[in-house]
Amino acid sequence: MRATTIHAPGDIRVEEVPDPVIKKPTDAIVKVTAGCICGSDLWPYRGENPIRRGSTIGHECIGVVEEVGAEVRDFKPGDFVVVPFCHCDNTCASCRNGAQSACVNLGMTSSGQGEYARVVEADGSLVKTDGVPDEALVPSLLALSDVMPTGWHAAVAAGVKAGDSVVVVGDGAVGLCGVLAASVMGAEKIIAMSRHEPRQAIAKAFGATHVVAERGKEGAAAVKEITDGIGVDAALECVGTNDAMTTAIGVTRANGGVGFVGVPHGVELPVRTLFEKNIGLRGGIAPVRRYLPELLELVTSGRIDPGKVFDLTLPLEESPEGYRAMDERRAIKVLLRP
Amino acid sequence: MRATTIHAPGDIRVEEVPDPVIKKPTDAIVKVTAGCICGSDLWPYRGENPIRRGSTIGHECIGVVEEVGAEVRDFKPGDFVVVPFCHCDNTCASCRNGAQSACVNLGMTSSGQGEYARVVEADGSLVKTDGVPDEALVPSLLALSDVMPTGWHAAVAAGVKAGDSVVVVGDGAVGLCGVLAASVMGAEKIIAMSRHEPRQAIAKAFGATHVVAERGKEGAAAVKEITDGIGVDAALECVGTNDAMTTAIGVTRANGGVGFVGVPHGVELPVRTLFEKNIGLRGGIAPVRRYLPELLELVTSGRIDPGKVFDLTLPLEESPEGYRAMDERRAIKVLLRP
Question: Dihedrals φ, ψ of A66, to 5°?
Answer without folding.
Answer: -100, -35
